[in-house]
Amino acid sequence: MKGYYAWDDQHLDDGLSVEFRYTETYKAYTGKDLSLRELKCLEIALPAAASPLQEGDLFVGRRVFRPLGIAPSYWDDDADGLDNVSFYADLARMTRVMNRPTQTRENRQAIAELIDFWKSENVNAKVRAGFDSVMRREMTSDLWSVDSGVIFGLYRLVFSQLDYDKLVRLGLGGLKKEVLARLEDDSLSGTQQSFLQSLASMIDLLLGILSTYEGQLRVLLKNGADPAWIQPMVDSLERIQAGAPACFRDALQLVWFYSAMTGGRDFGRMDVYLGDRYVKDLDSGRMTEEDAVELLLSFYRLMKETDSRDGRIVMGGLGRRNPGNADRVSLAVMKAGMRFRELKPEFSLRMYKGMSKEVRKMAYSMLENGMTYPLLFNDEASVCAVQKTMHVSPEESEQYGFFGCGEYVLGHRSIGTPNDIINLAKALEVTLHEGTDPVRGCPHGLNLGKPGDFDTFDKLFSAWKKQVAYFTQIAARHQKLVYNTVRENGSMLMMSLLMDDCIARALPLVSGGVRYLAGTYETYGNTTTADSLTAIREVVYEKKRLTLSELVQVLDSDFAGNEELRQILLNCPKFGNGDPVADGMAREVNTFVFETTASQAEIQGLSSYLVVMINNGANVDLGKNTLATADGRHGGTYLSNGNNPMAGMDHSGLPAMLRSLASTRMDLTAGTAQNLKLSKNLFSQHPDVVDDLIDTAFDLGILSLNVSVVDRGEMEDAMIHPEMHQNLFVRVGGFSARFVNLDPGTQADMLARALY
Amino acid sequence: MTGIITDIIPFSVNDGPGIRTSVYFMGCPLRCRWCHNPETQYGHPHAMVRVDRCTHCGACTVCSSGARGPHGEYDASRCTGCGKCAAVCPEKACWICGREVTPDEILHQVLPDKPFFRRRGGVTLSGGEPMAQPEFALETAKLLCKNGIGVCMETCGHADWTSYEQMLPYVQSFLYDYKVSDPESHRQWTGTDNRRILANLRNLSSCGVDIVLRCPLIPGVNDTTDHFLGIAGLTEELQGIRRVEILPYHSLGNNKRVQLGLESENFCVPEKAEILRWQDELNSMCRVPVCL
User: Which band of pLDDT confidence, cut at 50, 70 and 90, is reported for residue A617?
Assistant: First the structure.
């Protein structure tokens, strides 16, 4: 929709009337029951966030994001790019409104007071206020894409996959009945009763918003809008207010509406919850496949225009109650995706032995056409890995989903939001600088001695491990602190309604409601670190070409006058070539990080705390503040990406590269990104080879593959003539992007990666 | 036993079915002027020279074989592959192409990739000409088969029949070059006529092995109706031929020719449309599919 932007300041009036009412309510209910306060705030925030239908929309529920509200994560990618959790406050947007030239002095003063209030009252700020002295020392900044540091905190409850299957089966009315039935339990505490009552009232609020939408549509009809466009929506809204969705359209409408109101971004096993209604409508002749594709296209458009991140749709896999129907709708879901040809939704396919050949073929066809989706998951191995790492039954692990860059979560049973990131190469850097960040010139991390003190490689390696363990326990504490602060400030009602076992336990999401309260930890520069350690071991300790102190000086000077040494370092064994030395080091580095991280779960009282070795472009940003590394990488350039070789360092062929990737203990993590850049020619001329390649990669134990089908010449030309290549999609790591929109550093990273 | 190879290339997808590893044997009895691997024509390791890096410093005249001249001149046929020039070249403009390996060493390098071969793939013996080192090719193929790895062999067809005959139990498919139909023209462009090549092809077919007829098409040399009729006739006559693959001329071999001290060749690189037209024409004439 031209001109529509969910975060646009044009949605905001000069007086910020909604924000003032919201704040008054917030203040009035502070000190009372948290669920009730949240409900009362939602009663102001949600109707104001529900934006009218626009030309071409087939569903109501356009969402605008106002500067105050409650969300799993409020994230404005035009601002600082940081997530804001629970009760958020976008102070920058409110400041812009305050400073509008048209603004009155009274308004300015009032808004200034509003900003002042929320400056310390938003949950992000409250988390930071809860930092202990160690956190304050080591996590001085949240601006991970700009500032230098080993770890950074994130503030969010992202990527939880709500139980849309239940929503579609029961409808809002059915959910309310379930909540009310639970309320009949006499043993509930007052807080529990208030929580359930708030859930029931929230459902009424949602039904009220749907009713308002219906009224708006009837006015449109009265004013001459095309009945063929509007009437089906009116009928659908009537039905979903009265009961459970009766058809495919109803299901999509309700899911979209609920997701938009929640501010959620992931759609879980869409094939399961849409499959039955799709097949019923199709087989009864009430709907054609083309009708379904049109509806899906409108759904995708809303997704794209309402949010700029995520939008994961999961298809396929074990543990579906309706595999036949689910596969049939998957074909329509992908067909619409091919036609939509945008970065949304993020399609993902769980591939298993005996899966539908048609679904597999359609997925490959999407990839061949340069869509970069779907992300391919090795289902059987993923089920086993999830079972082991998340300590759940096989039945539950079959319900795994994934989010963001492919991190595992248990569909509507767990929260696994990654709320901290670590730069492992930077951890080595501060270890080599006596517990100082040489970029900022201030103490950071543990001082474990001078380089000269590490007279054996084992001593150096142990010191790095100690450093990583130190930062990891801080990160785990931060993760828990985010949960605690969210719990102390609200109930996350919208999420709680559709997450197991919040209703059954009559407890809000992070107050004991969700079955598995887990956490994840994003690690970056894994391969850069491993390759650097391999090179240090060989060059400093085995061949004794120079001392470690001398090497640190060379790295600090970014190899100035030492190109010969850089070449020697570059020629040391590198991960990605099937080399046992390099792969062995990477495995040891990664396994240590995985196990150290996992050990924090029990300490922090989380059901699991796991590494996600993924990528969101942070390898480029974190690289900017990382000095030269001993793998031969120049300072300031990108770090390695996910579980992949350093770009350009794999030169022993694709099988060797995949063997290296498979040597990583992916089964100890909550997800790792494996990138595969294949040529268009391979896909079009050798489909059998593609089959063999993916099957073998999965047989070797690789859990997922991010496949990009690209042409190097096209990428090079796109750097010169970006206007000609707007539709060139590439897979950066866990996410896809338009190549021309990537920053030059990421474009260079993409180009340097081997194309097979 | 040892043999001489130039390289082992994993993930070769254009030399036989599935995912393959290609082993490039050194030595070839033909001298096709369009050859894209001219460095494999010699039967022994030898130097390659990047002339754009060469400063004519003369350091490489350390060579006593007479292969190197004082101003960067190079005659690969006289090179013994001693490696002295590569060792002394300050610009790193020289390197040695070719190395001696045992079948075991080949197996050792190939084996880790075996899972990728699955049912279709395996190893392709290529070159050069594997049959220029028949005993080494045989031992290598035997060893690979023994380890459950399927073998294809790419060949120009110009070798003793007995060499082919002994390979039969170990080769799943022959990628058999067919270059020029007219014997005299064949001699003009490759240095030898095609009678032996055709005889071996007929023998192989009569043994019931799978054959892919690989036809390099060089504008101005063999893009003629007569040659196309020759290809079509063979597919009619020989039931062993399962399909025809067109190998359109490309000029990548020219750079290597220069590195070998040879003149570059000036064949015309065909346009995509021309290649598709060849494919259509051949498809209309041949009993078997014609692929690119």
Answer: confident
For residue B115, which residues of chain A lie inside 8 Å, CB to CB?
655, 696, 699-700
Residues of A numbered 657-676 whose beta carbons fall under 8 angstroms of chain B's beta carbons: which are they?
658-659
Cβ pair A685:B116 closer than 8 A: no
Q: Which of residues 641-660 of A touch B (CB under 8 A)?
A: 652-656, 658-659
Single out the residue of A391, A416, A420, A386 nearest to residue A404, CA to CA: A416
Cβ pair A696:B116 closer than 8 A: yes
Residue type, B56: H
Residue B190 confidence class, pLDDT cut points 50, 70, 90: very high
C-alpha–C-alpha distance, residues B190 and B31, integer Å: 5
By Cβ distance, the residue of B9, B18, B112 closest to A689 is B18
B-chain residues within 8 Å CB-CB of A654? 10-11
Cα end-to-end distance, chain A, whole Å: 38
Between A52 and A714, where is the model more confident? A52
Find chain B residues with C-beta within 8 A of A659's C-beta.
Answer: 112-113
Interface predicted TM-score of the whole assembly (ipTM), two decimals? 0.90
Are A45 and A138 spatial neighbours (Cβ–Cβ below 8 Å)? no
Mean pLDDT of A167-185: 98
Strand partners of residue B151? B123
Residue A60 has pLDDT above 50, yes or no: yes
Q: Is A31 exposed, middle or buried (0-12, 13-18, 19+ CB in 10 A)?
A: exposed
Nearest CB partner across the interface for A688, out of B18, B113, B292? B18
Task: State the nearest Cα–Cα gap between B112 and chain A, in angstroms.
Answer: 8
Gyration radius from chain B CA atoms: 20
For tokens 């025809």, name the residue: B244
pLDDT at A681 (0 to 100):
80
Which among B215, B202, B196 has a CA at the least distance from the CA of B158? B196
pLDDT digits (tens, 9 = 90+) for A339-372: 999 888 999 999 999 999 999 999 999 999 888 8
In the prediction, which pLDDT does A1 show?
A: 35
Q: At what angle do helices A91-98 and A105-121 cross, to 10 degrees?
A: 170
B10 and A689 within 8 Å at the Cβ level: the answer is no
Q: How many CB atoms lie within 10 A of CB B233?
A: 14
B46 touches B96 (CB < 8 A): yes
Q: Tell me how far apart the alpha carbons of residues A732 and A720 are, in angstroms, rounded to a whole number.
A: 19
Q: N- to C-terminal Cα distance for chain B?
A: 37
Contact B156, B197 (CB under 8 A): yes
Could you say which of B13, B118, B292 has the minimum Cβ distance to residue A695? Answer: B118
Mean pLDDT score of chain B, rounded to an integer?
A: 94
In this structure, what token pair is assigned to residue B105? 């060493």
Q: How far apart are CA A434 and CA B179, in angstroms?
A: 68
pLDDT of residue A2: 39
Q: For residue B10, give the nearest of A656, A682, A699 by CB distance.
A: A656
pLDDT in tens, A121-147: 999 999 999 999 999 999 999 999 999
- Please report the sign of the dihedral spanned by the C-alpha atoms of residue B115, residue B119, residue B120, residue B125: positive
Confidence of residue B264 (pLDDT cuts 50, 70, 90): confident
* Pairwise CA distance, residues B118 & B120, whole Å: 6
A685/B contact by beta carbon, under 8 A? yes
- pTM greater than the 0.90 cutoff: yes
Residues of B in contact with A656 (CB under 8 A): 10, 112-113
- Chain B partners within 8 Å of A756 (Cβ): 11
Q: Among the listed ranges A365-369, A435-439, B2-6, which one has the minimum average pLDDT value?
A: A365-369
Q: Count other C-beta atoms under 10 Å from residue A99's C-beta.
A: 10
8 Å CB contact between A389 and A666: no
The DSSP symbol for A300 reads H
Return the pLDDT at A320.
Answer: 98
